[in-house]
Amino acid sequence: MGKTLAEKILSLKSQSDVRAGDIVIAPVDLVFVQDTTGPLTIRQFQESGFGVLAESQKTAVFLDHAAPSPSQQLSNDHAFLRQFAKETGSALFEVGSGICHQLVAEHFANPGDIIVGADSHTVTAGALGAFATGMGSSDVAVILALGKTWFRVPESFLIDLRGTFPEGVYAKDLILYLIGQIGADGATYKALEFGGEALSQMTMSQRLTIANMAVETGAKVGLFPSDEITHNFLTAQGRGDGYKPLYTNAKAVYEQVISVNLNELEPMLSYPDAVDRVFAVSKARGIRIHQVFIGTCTNGRLEDLAIASSILEGKKRHLDTRLLIAPASRQVLAQAIEKGYIGALIDSGAVILPPGCAACLGLHQGIPGDGEVCLSTANRNFKGRMGNPNAMIYLASPATAAASALRGEITDPREV
Amino acid sequence: MSLRAKQSNLKGKAIKLGNNISTDDIIPGRFAHLRSNLPELAKHILEDVAPSFCARVEPGDFLVAGRNFGLGSSREHAPLVIKMSGISAVLAKSVARIFFRNAINQGMPVLLCDTDKIADGDELEINLSDGLITNLTSRPLPNKVGSGEGLLSSGARLRSSKTPSFMLAILEEGGLIPYIRKHKDFIIRCSSEPY
């Protein structure tokens, strides 16, 4: 009998023949914390009585969620994490380096790796074929000490993708569509495994967007097989040696198969306050927008900024709509400057924020006011997510966000 | 004393919440600057969605939710502030994956059951070892318009999902960190148990 990607990776890593439903102990290749979950994790690690990090894995500390720090308390948390990184030799990514998930993709993730982060969007690295999942502080503290953890091997949903994206439709529209179909808890404890002929034309940036939001269906991982596109991405990052072929065996058993023809998709939108309240942008035209935010681990990459820049170049944002842009990493920012995207975005009236999570989670850099509406390219729109429970958040692609910034209202990008 | 001996029977009242209560609802991200000051952080529990929660909750009470409780962020501060409020167990129709692990890791039981059968304020008794939930509240028979229909009558029992044995072992030690301090490793037999 064949194996799903999840069964394959967990079998190889646990050195046993495992199937969905089994519990395994497996070694972790990369474990990381960020600045809002890290301090509790490190205190729990210190309480665990081990004192030293397991040597078998890489450890990283990212200062990205509140970076640079907006408050005394968070500055003290940053200082605590810097001290920990220094004492233990963990890789430290300072404020301005970028968002942990983007940096994991750029610097660490390889096909077949097991990656655990103290952040729910750790699933992003599934784009590279890594079994990457988020856990809480206690679990991550124990991984720091032991270099391993337990997993329940998930059942898998195969997402079979055919066709090509029509003009104006992007990876974000696909994953929003899927979340609408599956629901916010439809894949709880499961793996989403992406496959089908459409993958051969799907860039790493698009895969990262899709894998990033797998958790919004409740899934544990969002896995892509590895292929030439994976190999080329790793090579461009100077990590071609990390490439391994990873694909599903014939006759793997899936709990569900969901087929999507990309040609039939249109621009999609998540309505407040639930990611799975998904409707077509064409049905929502005309909703007034006070702030547009383009960035995050979902859509803050070079391709995303290229799309936004192509729509906004030579034009001005609507006078009553603020436009915030946060590149996902320093590398993305540098490349976007070189390509002229940042200049075009600044000329259109955008505010460029430092690489990091920025306005996504309500700590700083763009908290909407009472009754205001924000259109964001992020992955969550829960009540209060951006720091104000009296604001509303819609989620969409960078194209829809850029088009909406021009008109000051929700706009189908195919119209501009 | 083991959990089974100490608290195999939990008693308290039900405080009901709806479906899809996210970790941002439980403890909003905008309070991240208080995460190294847990008593201050805990004051903001559920303040956007259930502002009366803090005033109502008494030690031993149960948080009774609908579907997909605890979706969203991996912040373990969510189960932590629930536990600090005095809640002794979470009951829900379904629970998000990371929250489930985090709650167990904080030594707080999570029972999956049909929570539509429980009314806000019901006095419940929960036996963790067999997962049976008993209603201790007498209530009038359902009236003509159906109010009270489908609720557990006094003395009636509701079965919840069985907690896997290795998770019970973590609960018995009061959470994952005390468990690891004691055992120095995971004592888990690889198996096909649920979860």
Summarize the structure.
Chain A has 416 residues and is an alpha/beta fold. Chain A folds into two domains: 5-261, Aconitase, domain 3, CATH 3.30.499.10; 268-415, Aconitase, domain 3 (2-Layer Sandwich).
Q: If you had to describe this structure to a student in words, what would you say it looks like?
A:
The complex is a heterodimer of chains A (416) and B (195). With 416 residues, chain A is of the alpha/beta class. Chain A folds into two domains: 5-261, 2-Layer Sandwich (Aconitase, domain 3), CATH 3.30.499.10; 268-415, Aconitase, domain 3 (2-Layer Sandwich), CATH 3.30.499. Helices cover 30% and strands 19% of the residues of chain A. Chain A is built from 13 helices and 18 strands. Chain A has helices spanning 5-14, 38-47, 72-88, 100-107, 137-146, 171-182, 204-212, 228-236, 296-299, 302-312, 330-338, 341-347, 398-407; strands at residues 23-27, 30-34, 58-62, 91-93, 114-117, 131-134, 148-152, 156-162, 191-195, 221-223, 256-261, 268-270, 278-280, 291-295, 322-326, 351-352, 373-376, 392-395. In chain A, the strands form five sheets. In chain A, strands 4-3-2-5-6 form a five-stranded parallel sheet, with helices on one face. Chain A has a five-stranded parallel sheet with strand order 16-15-14-17-18. In chain A, strands 10-9-8-11 form a four-stranded parallel sheet, with helices on one face. In chain A, helix 7 (204-212) links the parallel strand 9 and strand 10 (221-223). In chain A, helix 2 (38-47) packs across helix 5, helix 6 (171-182) runs parallel beside helix 7 and helix 10 (302-312) runs parallel beside helix 13 (398-407). Chain A is globular and about 60 Å long. Chain B has 195 residues and is α/β, with parallel strands linked by helices. Chain B contains eight helices and seven strands. Chain B has a seven-stranded mixed sheet. Mean pLDDT of chain B is 89; it is low at 1-5. The chains are: A alpha/beta (416), B alpha/beta (195). Chains A and B meet through strand 1, helix 2, helix 3, helix 5 and strand 7 of A and helix 5, helix 6 and helix 8 of B.
